Structure formats: structure tokens, C-alpha cells
Amino acid sequence: MTTDVKPGLPARVAELREARAAAEAGPSAKATEAQHARGKLTVRERIALLLDPGTFHEIERFRTHRSTSFGLEDRRPPTDGVVTGWGLVEGRQVFVYAHDFRIFGGSLGEAHAEKIHKVMDLAVDAGAPLISLSDGAGARIQEGVTALAGYGGIFRRNVRASGVIPQISVILGPCAGGATYSPALTDFVFMVEGISQMYITGPDVVRAMTGEVITHDQLGGAGVHGSVSGAAHFVYRDEAECLAEVRHLITLLPANNREEPPVVAAADPADRPTAELVDIVPADPSSAYDMRRVVETLVDDGDLFEVHRGWATNVLCGLARIDGHVVGVVANQPASLAGVLDIHASEKAARFVQTCDAFSIPLVTLVDVPGFLPGSEQEHGGIIRHGAKLLYAYCNATVPRVQVILRKAYGGAYIVMDSRSIGCDLSFAWPTNEIAVMGAAGAANVVFRREIAAADDPEAARAQKIKQYEQELMHPYHAAERGLVDDVIDPADTRRALAAGLAMLRRKTRPLPLRKHGNPPY
């Protein structure tokens, strides 16, 4: 009688190493070559760029699907097309899931989804950021409704994690149909030119349903979402640059909503004079300039991590540091549409304010705004509703809030840009500030219409009334005299004032009223 002898532990360990190596290698060299031929990195090459070397811990490496339909029973590759786990970015813990396009096109089935659900739950429980590297063909058709249910589980977790941990989506290939809603629910979306696409319905369906002929990139490429739809916060030239900037973003965010953003030792003195601002910002309120130069002058080492740089360019939003502490900057941009607020600018700034408030990032608001953009297109598009989003976001924010009025601040746009009346903690103004219901010329035409019309010389009368309005209601100390501005400052002292004010507010607490949740405008 022969007795089977089980292999010893060394043999089992050797088998394990072979299995692990096979899972890490992927389905085949040919599949890897095809991925590279598309101009894309493999899933593990991406994770290696994202995480600190040697820190990745993979979970459910050997998970496979259990479908028996349409030939899937003969194809059960390990990982089931998604790599999940945790690691470090600049020494700070993050959780990751990354689609492997070489396996079933990165499509989502039941096992694939359950792996993602698990890593999402771990991220929330551990209180650490979640990063998704998306490169998948959507729901796995062969698995039917279970694939759709898998997406539902992801969306529910995205919403539960919102405002609890930072969620970052990196689109590195196709992201179509229902899959697009997960990135839309996260805090930040990164895309790469030439390889990233997001759309609800692809070009073939669009052509069949509407007759429109359009390419993948024209429909949902990085350029479209970075500058037209606003669905992408950041767009980069290649994957290496993109993943390096994801790492940089992590250094600016807290691990979760119970922690403060990371602080670094600042080599740039907090009281550094900013006299160059006088040369950057013209005194004439109608002259354009680049607000980006102002922000870079004010923040540590000129380092601004701008969000949505290519979309709604009439408002500037970004993360930076002042005296080593992270701040969120919102500023009107006179170089684009004169810095006017419109539908997209209001949406962009509102979302950014909400994100900063969720993660305890103080807000610095730089104001140079002529008002809201007039016209039927804006009114019919819902500027009232969209402008109210920014108003709601500021009014609801409990983080330290400091406003600086550089030049003009007219009408409702002045109120919305974090004025004292809606709760900013400190308001500073330059001596070039003009705070009023509207510009002097427009105001004079309304207030003194009859006197101007009846005058022997209407133009001379108009000029005199404009001057009168400016002297009485638009002089630089009018708002300060009424307590709506805390101080009128020399532009050279702006960084010093911001650093001192933010330091004073560092322990600010302002609890919101007890409620289930507010009902913001949509």
C-alpha cells in the first residue's frame, strides 16, 4: 500500500513564491507589451511610482471570480483584474486600488468589486486617504447584474467616506458608463493627456443615437474634462508626472477629518515683506493683471498647487502654505473675464471651499471682483442657484477664514467672496479697495439720472457725480469706518498680516447648529 507524502514546508514555500510571482507578472508578456504599446504603464509599475519603495502591502492577491457563464469558467486569473492594498506616500499611510487592464480589460465583476469594497472599508476604518488608479472597461458584461451591484457598493462607500478621508481618483485609461460616477463623488480627479477618457456613453453609442461622429478624446479626454466640463481637477502630460503630483497632493492633506493638515518647517519667513505686489497690481481697477503672481508672492516659496487650473479660469483655487501651514486660496482672476463670477467659477470655488472646510484647511480669499456676469445665458443657466452654492459653502465653513480686498469688490459678488457679513474672521483691505454696490460710473447713472439729464452739460455733470460718489461711498476707509474691514494695510505687509491672522485663528472652534445635514442649492 502506497502512502501519499505531502510536500514539506520548503516545497510549499517555493510554490507560494511561484504563485506570487505569477500574480505579479500578470496574464502574459504579450498582454504587457500590448499595454505598453497603448502608451500606458502596467498596474504594478503605476503603484511603484505612487508609493514609497518597498512599502506596498497587497491584499487578496489570489482572489478570482466564480462566474461560470460565457467561457469565464476557463479563465480565472489571480487578482481578477484589480490590485488592492496599502502603502506609504512620503511616509504617510494611504490605501490603493488599481485596475489591471490586461485582465478582462480591467472590467468590474463581483469578486473585483468585493476587493474594492474591502480596501475602501479599511481606508475609512484606518482613517487614511484612498487612491484609485482607474483603467477599466466598465461593468463585466458576462456577470450581469452582480457587476452593477458591485458599482453600487462602491458609490455608497464613496458617499460614506466623503468628508471623512481624502478620496483621490486617477484616470489612466478608459472610464465609461456607471464607472464615471465614482470619480465624480471623490475629492480630486487626475487625468493624463492621450490615455485618459471618461464618458457616460462612448462614441459608438453617440453616433448610433445622435448621428454625431466624435473620437474618444473629443468626447471625454483629459483636455475636455480639464477645461470644458470641469470633471478633472488636474491634467498632466504623462503618468510619471501625474503620479508624482498625486504624491505632492497627499503631503498637503490630512489623513482624515479628525487630524490637522501636515505642518512643515518654513524656511520662508512669515513676516517677509511683499513690496513687489505694488508693481504687480495696477491701481487702476479696470487694468488686468495675473492674480497667480500675487498668490505666489504671498505663499511659502511661491509654491501654489492650483486646482482646476484650466477650467473656470476667472477664479483661482489652490493649496499652498503660509508659515509652514497649509491654506486653501480662493481668488478672483482679473486676467480672465476681468475676474467676474459666473456659473462655472461659482461651482469651482464652492466645491473647493467645501473640500477645505471638510479637511480643516484654513481659507484665504483674495478679492478683486466687478460682480456677477450679466446676461440671459447666465440667468437661464441658473446663476442664482449656482452663485448660491458659493455663498452656502462659505457660510457653512467653520475653518479659519481671512479675506483680503485688493481693489474692486462690487455688489453681491463682494458679499459672496467671504465678506465679514457672511462670517469671515478677519478682513483686510489695501488702500486701493473699492467696496460698493456697483462701480461709480454705473451708480452715478442710477442715483443721479435726473440731475444729469437736466444739466446744461450732462457729461460734466456725470463726471462730477461720479467723483462725488467715489468720495462719499468708495473711499478706501469707508468699510473700515463701519467695521466691515478690520484694517487697511500696506500691500507690502500682506503676507505678514495673513501669517499673524492665521496663527491667531489656529485654535478656532465654531460648531454648527445641531441638524442632520443642511440642504445646499444644486
Query: Which structural class do the helices and strands define?
Result: alpha/beta
Largest sheet: 8 strands, mixed
Number of helices: 21
How many domain units?
3
CATH class of the largest domain: Alpha Beta
Name of the CATH superfamily of the largest domain: 2-enoyl-CoA Hydratase, Chain A, domain 1
For the CA atoms, what is the radius of gyration? Answer: 27 Å
Number of strands: 17
Mean pLDDT: 92
Distance between the termini: 78 Å
CATH-defined architecture of the largest domain: Alpha-Beta Complex
Helix content: 25-40%
Q: Which blocks of ≥5 consecutive residues have pLDDT under 50?
A: none
CATH topology descriptor of the largest domain? 2-enoyl-CoA Hydratase, Chain A, domain 1
Choose one word for the global shape.
elongated
Task: Classify the beta-strand content into a percent band.
Answer: 15-25%
Protein name: Acetyl-CoA carboxylase carboxyltransferase subunit beta /acetyl-CoA carboxylase carboxyltransferase subunit alpha
Keywords: Transferase
Pfam families: Carboxyl_trans (PF01039)
Domain CoA carboxyltransferase C-terminal: 269-516
Short description, anyone?
By secondary structure, the chain is of the alpha/beta class. It is 39% helix and 17% strand.
Write the layout of secondary structure elements.
Elements: H1 9-25, H2 29-37, H3 43-50, E1 57-59, E2 82-89, E3 92-99, H4 110-126, E4 130-134, H5 145-161, E5 167-171, E6 174-176, H6 181-185, E7 188-192, E8 197-199, H7 203-210, H8 216-220, H9 222-227, E9 234-236, H10 239-250, H11 277-280, H12 291-298, E10 305-307, E11 315-322, E12 325-332, H13 343-358, E13 363-369, H14 376-381, H15 383-396, E14 401-410, H16 411-416, E15 426-429, E16 434-436, H17 440-447, H18 449-454, H19 458-473, H20 478-481, E17 487-488, H21 494-504
Parallel strand pairs: 3-4, 4-5, 5-7, 6-8, 7-9, 12-13, 13-14, 14-15, 14-16, 15-17
Antiparallel strand pairs: 1-2, 2-3, 10-11, 11-12
Helix pairs in contact: 4-5, 13-15, 17-19
